[in-house]
Design goal:
The complex is a heterodimer of chains A (811) and B (267).
Chain A (H helix, E strand, L loop, with lengths): L8 H9 L3 H16 L20 H13 L5 E7 L8 H15 L4 E7 L5 E5 L3 E6 L7 H13 L15 E8 L2 H24 L6 E6 L1 H35 L2 H24 L10 H27 L5 H33 L3 H31 L21 H15 L1 H18 L18 H12 L4 E9 L8 H16 L3 E5 L1 H11 L14 H12 L17 E8 L4 H18 L5 E6 L1 H35 L2 H25 L10 H25 L5 H28 L7 H32 L2 H4 L8 H11 L4
Antiparallel strand pairs in A: 1-5, 1-6, 2-5, 3-4, 7-9, 7-10, 8-9
Chain B lengths: L1 H23 L3 H9 L6 E11 L5 E13 L2 E10 L7 E7 L7 E6 L4 E5 L15 H6 L8 E11 L2 E10 L2 H7 L3 E7 L4 E8 L5 E13 L2 E11 L5 E10 L11 H6 L2
Antiparallel strand pairs in B: 1-2, 1-13, 2-3, 3-4, 4-5, 5-6, 7-8, 8-9, 9-10, 10-11, 11-12, 12-13
The chains are: A alpha+beta (811), B alpha+beta (267).
């Protein structure tokens, strides 16, 4: 055979490709090494800000308020005890003093911005004046002194819930950093070490009742960076290892293994290297890219090699170049088509999402898939043509007829096929039921997420969060910035009372642990200046008096003490609200209610208000995840249907290709809806990616069916029967590789990734089952025209009618 | 052998030069004594203005008239706010006792409350009326506490074109450092006036804290008088400009100016 003997354009193309094997291999090796050299440029971004499109109004609002009021993300240490006196024992309060001093000495911590019972002043009124003195000046001796401190703090409403819990069981030490980005993780670790040491040396002698926890944004970032490293070190290698095992089982040849590995490495290096080169950092979710690519790219190699060994078994004397050209001629279309559907799935997920890291996952996974496709179409045939054809033990030649004698896996698939083809209508009805169940489940699907859910329940940070939510005002906050129309406007008692009413309204909302504003400070001062009379815990009635209170406070406070509450012009004030639960579902009603309240009460010309802060950002972010998910699924289905229809030149074939994965996703909506698994940033990725990947099974099956009836002139039933041991077998390994690969996400240290891994693995596996059962059943039941038109003697109803009409035979 | 000899001579030369240099600088003790011997006059009347600027450039301007009189073992001072209007008439009376163990006394009169309130003593390291200077800075004025620090003359250095002695001061112990809220000060002392033209402070963990600079120094009634102090906190970005004008060392101040009842009357 030579070029002129080639039947198709594709075969002529691959004849040319296999003519320059060394050149092609060299070019690809250079390309892969070139991209790999960019890898050291990779940066890591664990910030949660990364998940919001830069410039989003909620983010701008938050940053503006943080800037105006100098708000930072501190590291928080919680000291807690469930003994009778809580933390108010001389021993534990002395531990608070000791911890505070040690934390002030940590590099990166601003010693002047550490807040605890040991640093804060008590302001009390006396007959003739006011006393400002620290709650804890010296080390305490005896319970009596501790009781005194407790009485003092509990009379200071501003501190109750913020600095100490109402039940006295918990108190916080809040440390602000000089530069969060520079010192964050290191300062967190240093503070953690101090806490561990104090726990060991001081708490052990007090029995098991007391404990110390470290929390706060600084801790979250430090932990996530560590998790990303850990995940990268185990998830990728795990996926790789599992797939190597699948490949060995599938081919039992060294060649099958290393060719697949080349495709995998090329895809992963292509995606990650180009990511590094383009300056896009690794986000927390980016760890799924290599895992996804390992799982997906191996499919190309599995199908090409499967066909190669099948062809070799059928025709052992075929020259090697002809063997390669024949294999590629048959496989280029399904391999290209499935790669395009994968890319469409990723891009649909990426471009409907407004979460930037998800977009990047979509884009760079697509790049990896394209890289795998190029290697499969050029480098793999180039290598194969250099190798002497050698039979795989897994594909033994059948002596009599020209087909492959099925091995164990082939036989499993044959048996499954037998069952499906015997009762196709049952299979179709079952699928219809599943779609209906999914339809019922969809309204029960919920979008929900909480930052803390990124951590295992047994981590220190999770425990600290739970403690602060249970005992204090809550670890999750947002802000409301109140803006007066003119300078000194917020000295006006009427407008201050509006803020007071807003706080009162907020505190009635569920999950709101407490609110803090300048109003609380002014009330405390009013009480102190009125002989500590509890009835005087009210706002001053006079603009001048308010101004004089501020001056009075400055007699002993720091110049920037009020910065977090009110600006220098007395025009902007910040109300900070703590929530006892960081879940989107819990914050949503509060934020929406407050939004409405502000709309009604703060929209005249003299005063305005705006919601800002972290939970508000989170509210928009998670809200967009739900929308993005469904948009992504719909777009992915349309794109995948369109490309399959185009590839098979039949819209019905496209529909058939999409049906199994469509059914599988509906099954998942039903499961998620009824079990309460929520859609979140990580799990929202599963459906669109699953569509792109899982449709591949159907594409391979349909392609094989067309090939069988068109080229091999087989009958529909015969083609269906032979589908199972050949293509079905290859798909079995394909799904094993993809499932195990995706499943490697389940060993992640971050719980949502475990859920994501479980969802996508089972979704792909379910789609596989749907493809090998529902698809043949549908073909058997409906006998689609795009297949039957190639079969002589088998006519569709229209054809028969057409023929009868032309024969003019009376019916 | 040769190298050893060389090192020996080099060492000798090194020793000689450091000694020679040290001799060229007066001892820190000498300098601080001269600083503290400076005449400040027994009493003074001044218009004292505080211009405070926050991190974002927002300003607050407060004008006062201030009076100071020194007594045996204590210094009394009182200031009355004249602007802004919403604090006009507020009076602030302070008795500083030289005895470090005795807490200072402070009273504040709030006109809107029509009451004088006694305020418990501020700590030495607390900030004074929202400025970047501490009570200790205000109390000491241009003098430097001898008991709080150990001093060392480091070198000569120019400040505003004037050759100054750079004296390093380290609090004698951690307790004092915590009270003062700093762990180190560099004083740049001008030998012509024996006033420190620039002070640099480091916080208790050694981070740069603040810098204060004297910008205008004039001779009034034969007393070197500070007319403008510029202070900036490097951590908070907060700045203060304190100006003193119309300094009058001649008009004798009555004792009954420095009593609680006077606050009510205003001045």
């Amino acid at each position: 055979m030579n070029e002129n003997h080639m039947k198709t354009k594709a075969e002529r193309f691959f004849w040319k490709v296999t003519g320059y094997p060394v050149l092609i291999i060299l070019a690809f090796v250079l390309l892969i090494f070139g991209i790999a050299s960019q890898m050291p440029k990779m940066k890591i971004d664990t910030s949660i800000e990364a998940y919001i499109p830069p410039g989003h109004h909620s983010l701008l609002n938050r940053d503006k308020v943080r800037d105006i009021f100098g708000l930072t993300d501190p590291i928080v240490v919680a000291v807690s005890s469930h003994a009778k006196d809580g933390v108010f024992t001389a021993d534990l309060l002395n531990v608070v003093s000791e911890l505070t001093e040690n934390i002030q000495g940590v590099e990166g911590v601003d010693p002047d911005q550490v807040t605890s019972l040991a640093t804060e002043n008590n302001i009390t009124g006396t007959e003739d004046g006011m006393i400002v003195e620290p709650f804890l000046e010296e080390r305490l001796n005896g319970q009596q002194e501790a009781d005194q401190v407790r009485r003092a703090v509990m009379q200071f409403p501003l501190y109750v819930g913020n600095l100490v819990s109402e039940d006295g069981s918990t108190t916080l030490i809040v440390a602000e950093l000089l530069d969060k980005n520079k010192y964050g993780p290191q300062a967190y670790n240093d503070i953690k070490a101090i806490v561990d040491k104090v726990t060991e040396t001081r708490l052990s002698s007090m029995g098991n009742q007391a404990s110390i926890h470290v929390a706060g944004e600084g801790g979250v970032v430090a932990h996530l960076a560590e998790y990303i490293d850990k995940d990268a070190q185990k998830m990728g290698p795990m996926a790789f290892l599992l797939i190597v095992l699948v490949l060995i089982t599938a081919y039992r040849t060294f060649r099958g293994l290393y060719l697949s590995v080349i495709v995998i490495l090329g895809a992963v290096i292509g995606a990650m290297g180009l990511m590094a080169a383009s300056g896009v950092p690794m986000y927390q979710v980016s760890n799924v890219i290599p895992v996804i690519l390992i799982a997906i790219s191996v499919a190309d190699a599995i199908h090409i090699l499967g066909q190669y060994y099948e062809n070799l078994a059928a025709n052992p004397d075929l020259p090697r170049r002809d063997l390669v050209v024949q294999t590629m001629g048959e496989m280029w279309r399904p391999v290209t088509l499935t790669s395009i559907t994968d890319v469409f799935g990723f891009l649909a997920m990426g471009f409907t999402s407004s979460v930037p890291p998800l977009r990047m996952v979509g884009i760079f996974s697509s790049i990896g898939v394209i890289m795998a496709l190029l290697i499969s179409l050029f480098m793999v045939p180039a290598i194969l043509v250099l190798l002497k054809p050698k039979m795989s033990k897994a594909f033994r030649l059948a002596s009599t007829h020209n087909s492959v004698d099925p091995d164990f896996f082939g036989r499993i698939m044959s048996r499954l096929g037998g069952m499906v083809l015997k009762k196709p209508k049952v299979v179709v009805s079952l699928a219809a039921l599943m779609i209906i169940a999914g339809g019922i489940g969809i309204p029960f699907l919920t979008v929900d997420e909480a930052s803390i859910e990124n951590f295992n329940t047994n981590t220190a940070i999770y425990k600290a969060d739970r403690l602060i939510n249970a005992k204090m005002n809550g670890a999750n906050s947002f802000d409301i910035m109140v803006e007066a129309s003119e300078t000194d406007g917020l000295l006006d008692p009427d407008r201050l009372r509006k803020i007071e009413a807003l706080q009162k309204y907020l505190e009635q909302q569920p999950q709101v642990g407490g609110t803090t504003s300048i109003v609380d400070l002014l009330k405390q001062m009013n009480k102190s200046l009125n002989e500590n009379n509890p009835g005087a815990y009210t706002l001053p009635n006079d603009t001048d008096l308010t101004a004089q209170y501020f001056l009075l406070y400055s007699a002993s406070g720091d110049p920037s003490d009020f910065e977090q509450y009110i600006d220098y012009d007395y025009r902007l004030a910040n109300v900070s609200i703590n929530l006892k639960d960081g879940h989107y579902s819990k914050a949503k009603p509060v934020i929406e209610a407050v939004d409405q309240y502000i709309e009604n009460e703060f929209n005249d010309r003299t005063i305005k208000a705006n919601i800002a802060g972290w939970m508000n950002v989170f509210y928009y972010w998670v809200g967009s995840v739900g929308y993005g998910h469904f948009a992504g699924v719909i777009l992915a289905l349309i794109l995948v249907w369109a490309i399959s229809a185009l590839g098979f030149k039949s819209s019905v074939a496209g529909l058939l290709a999409v049906t199994p994965v469509f059914t599988a996703i509906f099954v998942f909506y039903a499961v998620m809806g009824f079990t309460g698994i929520t859609l979140n940033t990580a799990t929202s990725m599963f459906a669109a990616i699953a569509i792109g990947v899982a449709v591949d099974f159907a594409v391979h099956l349909i392609d094989r069916m067309i090939f069988a009836v068109k080229e091999q002139k087989k009958s529909l039933d015969q083609a269906l029967e032979e589908l199972f041991p050949s293509t079905g077998r290859a798909l079995l390994f394909n799904v094993a590789a993809v499932s195990l690969g995706f499943g490697s996400n389940m060993i992640s240290s971050i719980p949502p990734f475990i859920t994501f891994g479980a969802l996508i693995t089972t979704c792909v596996a379910t789609s596989f089952l749907g493809s090998v059962t529902l698809l043949p059943a549908l073909i058997k039941v409906f006998k689609p025209k795009f297949l039957t038109k190639h079969i002589e003697g088998e006519m569709t109803d229209e054809q028969r009618e057409d023929l009868l009409n032309r024969m003019e035979i009376p019916r | 052998m040769k190298t050893i000899k060389l090192i020996f001579y080099a060492g000798l030369i090194g020793l000689w030069t450091t000694q020679a240099f040290a001799q060229a600088l007066p001892s820190a003790k000498e300098i601080i004594n001269k600083v503290n011997a400076r005449n400040e006059g027994p009493y003074v009347t001044q218009e004292f203005t505080m211009e405070l600027t926050d991190r974002r450039g927002k300003k607050q301007l407060r004008k006062t008239v201030s009076y100071r009189k020194d007594y045996e073992g204590q210094r009394k001072s009182v200031l009355f706010f004249s602007s802004p209007t919403n604090v006009k008439g507020t009076g602030f009376l302070t008795f500083d006792y030289h005895d470090a163990d005795k807490d200072d006394d402070q009273w504040l009169y709030l006109p809107a409350l029509r009451k004088t309130r006694r305020i418990s003593a501020a700590n030495r390291g607390d900030y004074f009326l929202g400025t970047d200077l501490t009570y200790e800075d205000i109390k000491k004025g241009t003098k430097i506490s001898r008991e709080d620090y150990t001093f060392k003359t480091l070198k000569k250095e120019q400040v505003d074109g004037k050759q100054c002695y750079l004296v390093e001061a380290i609090p004698v112990n951690d307790k004092i450092a915590k009270e003062l809220k700093h762990s180190k000060v560099h004083f740049y002392i001008d030998p012509k006036t024996w006033i420190s033209l620039k002070n640099e402070y480091w916080d208790i963990s050694g981070n740069p804290l603040k810098t204060t600079e004297i910008e205008a120094l004039v001779l009034i009634d034969n007393i070197w008088t500070v007319q403008k102090i510029n202070a900036v906190n490097h951590k908070t970005g907060h700045r203060s400009i304190l100006t003193f004008s119309g300094s009058d060392y001649k008009t004798e101040l009555e004792d009954d100016l420095f009593v609680e009842q006077t606050l009510l009357r205003g001045r």
